[in-house]
Structure formats: structure tokens, C-alpha cells
Amino acid sequence: MKTFADRLNAAMSAAGISQGQLAEKVGISQPAIQKMTSGKTTGSRKMVELAHALNVRPEWLSSGIGSMQDEGRKESAIPPESEWGKVDAWDSKTDLPDDEVEVPYLKDIELACGDGSCLEDDYNGFKLRFAKSTLRKVGAQKDSVLCFPASGNSMEPMIPEGTTVAINTNDKKIVDGKVYAISQDGWKRLKSIYRVSPTRIVIRSFNSEEYPDEEADIESVEILGRMFWTSTIW
User: Fold this and answer.
1) Which of 159, 168, 201, 218 fits a disulfide with 155 by CB distance 3.0 to 4.6 angstroms?
2) Does the keyword field hold Glycosyltransferase (predicted)?
3) Using CA atoms in the order 107, 113, 117, 119, what is the torsion angle rounded to 10 degrees?
4) Are 11 and 64 in contact (CB under 8 A)?
5) Type and span of the H or E element at 47
6) Is the pLDDT of residue 119 over 60?
7) Model's pTM, two decimal places?
């Protein structure tokens, strides 16, 4: 199943769902589903919704990465609502708790998931807050974390345009399949990285049908940091 259409048809067959039923679940027209199943469109804008409706992994549906469904899925670790704590609203004037830190948020500067754009030092004073325990889990420190919005569609469905991501600039060791902020001659992007030899890497997009793999000398690519957190508003 090399194409998105192949995987979509297989997932629909496995789920026992028709084009009309899928269209209703996702909130689009039946002709739009028909175009996807025939290979005329990729459905990248609705990839996550399609995957959820079909009970398959978005990465698999989008690019064939990994298994069709989560294997050995565990019960949710989310506690019942009765055990939820309260959510405190805060702004720039709210005192910083002892167990949290503030990190820069590059609100007006996008790190591209596609065409590329420049990352500058000026972040206009915007910040986000993280629990110190969160940073400890990923080996990050306050001064090694940068947050910014992603742009473009090359990393959909996992990183839609506008997603806020956080990278740890202390973590630059390449682990196959992980997502990194990289720079090539000033072109800064978010990409999944794989080693193919001691001196060569593959730069991969999740939206592989529109953005094919690139191969590069490892010395030509600067690893800015590994992504460890994302936040998306749908």
C-alpha cells in the first residue's frame, strides 16, 4: 500500500465503513471522500479526523509509517474527572510558582514545516510556562528550551500549521524517526531525521506524498534541537 488512496481504502474496508458514513463522521462531502479513495486528492487537511474515524494511526494513513493501528494499546492514563485538579488562569503579571519556569515563545517568527523561514534571537518578550518536572523528563533546562509556531503542511497530520512546538537545544543527538529543528544554509525547518550511513542522513516529512525524502551530508545540516512537546488548537 504505497499511496494514501491505497491505505484509505484498506482502512475503510477494515472498519466496515462506507464513503458516505466516513464523510459524515469527518464533516466533509461524499464526493470529497471519493476523490481521496481514487487518488485525486491526499486529504492532508483532514488527516487526523480521517484516522480517528477509521481507528488507525495518522502517521500510517498519511505516509505508511509504522503499523496501521496502535499495538498493545494500554488503558488511558487519564484519571477520572472526579480526580482532576483545577486549572489556574495566568498572565504576565501572575507570580511564577516555585515548580515552574518561563521559556521564550517566538510568537512572531515561524519555524517552517515547508518553505522555510529564519529564526532570530528577538522573541518580543512572549513566554510560555513549563513545569520543572516536564523539563527534567527530557533532560532540558530553562535556558535550553525554545517554543515557536510551525508553518506549512509538510509535517501534517502530526504537526498541523500553527502548532506550537518546543525544542530542547541541549538534545542534538540523532535518534532515527525523531523530529528536530534543523538549519541548512539559514533554511530552518522541522523534520524527522534518519541516519543512512556514518556521514549521510535522510530528512523526512510526515506529508511524504507532497514532500519527498531528502538526503544530505550530515555536516551540511545543523541540528538546532529535538522537539519534545507540541500544542495544537483545532
Assistant:
1) 159
2) no
3) 50
4) no
5) helix 47-54
6) no
7) 0.63
